[in-house]
Fold each of these.
Amino acid sequence: MGDDKAAIITGSTSGIGLGVAKALAGSGMNVMLNGFGDADEIESIRSGLASETGVDVRYSGADMSRPEAIEAMVDEARAAFGRIDVIVPNAGIQVVSPVEDFPLDRFELLMRINLFSVFHLTRLVFAGMKERKWGRVINIASAHGLVASPYKSAYVAAKHGVVGFTKSIALEGAEHGVTCNSICPGYVLTPLVEKQIPDTAKARGMTEEQVKRDVLLAAQPTKEFATVQQIGALAVFLCSDAAKQITGAALPVDGGWTAQ
Ligand code: NAD
């Protein structure tokens, strides 16, 4: 599927983003990784993926909360690959707090990373996609883009925002060969989820084991976590010709959570 196509996957040094980057690189696309972490570990992920797949794998440490850093990352990707055909805005953080105590700076930071960066990345690559008459915007939203849980007001607001943004962009790209969809994962056992278990336990007065069983998987009828490989495979499918008429959709990968 490659045809020298190139993708930027934000927040891809870990978890779902890394799973999507591996899947897209495996399908033959050049990829730009992004995210935070230990420099040596990131370099070993980058070079390992390049040698496994034979595609060009680059890395940018751009901070998705800063529009000027997003612009610099896009310039770097364009210089390296000559084009950007696919974006997967995925970088995200979680903050768990009752609304009356919600730290103001954390609410704003979450919005900048989880929602505003999706707008910035899209606006910077959209004209090129339209010109080439092919593009894929694959937003990693969440089941929390469709339904809510308590104590996650910032996250739920941002993810519902991503799902709405997706629909608008789908309409803007519709006659130009550019599709835009949201993938809405349920719980995937990544560092993001592991980190919120202690806070959720505190907010609900539960043990960490109870949170996993009675809060996280309680919402998921299959009683199984979704995997990063399953999300990566869906992203590859959305890039295929078979998915050309799928646009503006919010696609749950949530073990039946949002069917309830
Ligand atoms: P993760 O914590 O494993 O990975 C997050 C990635 O984002 C990391 O690479 C991190 O370095 C990067 N990141 C964080 N802040 C950044 C910033 N300011 N700039 C650039 N990169 C930044 O998380 P994950 O679980 O893989 O989550 C990825 C996405 O999937 C998020 O948008 C999250 O909301 C969404 N999601 C996750 C789950 C889940 O259960 N894990 C469920 C639904 C949706």
Amino acid sequence: MHQQAQSALGLLGVQTPLAGLAIGGLWSPGQGELLTAHSPIDGEPSVELAAASSSQVGDAIAAAKAAFGSWRVAPAPVRGEFVRRFGERLREHKEALATLVTWEAGKIYQESLGEVQEMIDICDFAVGLSRQLYGKSIASERPGHRLTEQWLPLGPIGVISAFNFPVAVWAWNAAIAWVCGDPVVWKPSEKTPLTAIACQTLVAQTLAGLPAVPPGVSCLTFGGVEVGQKLAASPDLPLISATGSVRMGRAVAQTVAARLGRSLLELGGNNGMIVAPSADLELAVRSITFSAVGTCGQRCTTLRRLFVHESIADQLRDRLLEVYGRLPIGDPSDEKNLIGPLIDEKSGRAMAAALAAAKAQGGTIHGGERIAEGVPAGGVYVRPALVEIDADAEILQQETFAPILYLLRYQDLETAIALHNDVPQGLSSAILTSDVREAELFCSAAGSDCGIVNVNIGTSGAEIGGAFGGEKETGGGRESGSDSWKQYMRRATNTVNYSDQLPLAQGIRFDV
Ligand code: NAD
């Protein structure tokens, strides 16, 4: 393992030998299959770890279920204090955790710092929320009756997360679930075990200072698809929050639906932006570049389809090609680079295949080649691709998790919006315009059909205060801010009769 990652683990207080299974601070080595994670920086094996066996996953779920017994009745602000202290640990260890994120997910250090900051932000949000889990007071039609709605803890939550946001997505779920009174059982991506172990270590340290909190509020079950499926199938986990590909979401959703459980799905995106003639071109170049090439095109919100008005298309294309040509690509831990590697060889092959398909479908390709010079050997480094293509190309329908931006020209806005919406996914979208009518149309019911609709910013880089998620094949889930917390609770409608009469609703007479 790289020296920097090694010392980050030390700074975080991670114990060795590394174990992939934990119930609070109680660690056990997995008894399942041996999995090897590689750092995308150089492709070298970074850690070999045994997955949790099926019975170990069962033990973790049982521990979470037991913890739920006392956690659900702890006052919500007391639960918030646990989250507040965890957030403090994150603040103290921000740099070390970000170093590990860069090591395991390959994103540049600045973006890794941003990812850990998102964890801190969601903890702050959740702490405030712990005093604001408001219900409603409703007018009763009956005299001497009080009708209210209250929100109560749901139960242990299963969290399945993807490699590209190895820590923030878990934190979005965990911080909110904890204040809502729910323990969390986490299965991280098999590609990013070290960051997961580091997070669980910080939880364990927080738990050590709060002996009243049951350790089962946070369980880690490292492993692959089988561990994910075991969580999805468990009737003891009333909610499964799953982030990843549409393929994964389909499998998880069907398993959860078969037991009539709830799922919160955060799946693939195929995000588009419209650039209108009145757009500020300087702002356009910057926002397009960050959205399209940031995290080497491996964000669910990465910009993949760009609809540019024909009057400015050549000019914008030339500006983008100029910027693309000088993007610093290389080791993501070197702060001079803006683009790190793809996660692995399979991803590199998927990018090459998508570009070949785009070419066969009439596309003109700029960039997209593999880079071997000036980058760490063994990693998959690519130059981001810009592809000029027609709207009917089939390749536009799929998410390729790599930095490929398809550029299309449009004449009228209504057609551009229709084409923008004409994909199976519905996560993030944007319009760049100085015309308020165009902006409002894009945000209206006749506009973008996505869960995230932006004006004069790119498609990626959401704030935690809003609800995050998308429509159609993206899965329909909402995480993070706004009222997403309601998914982690159950709603009870309470009718209290404080009179000595028994009037029935709807005026029904039933005299006995
Ligand atoms: P992936 O689907 O390969 O894996 C995601 C997680 O699901 C992993 O932990 C994996 O082990 C698990 N998994 C896979 N198949 C499973 C199954 N059949 N049953 C249970 N668990 C299963 O995705 P990835 O390559 O890690 O991540 C990239 C994908 O995630 C992209 O499609 C991206 O758009 C999406 N993503 C979406 C969001 C969002 O918020 N919408 C955020 C991040 C990533």
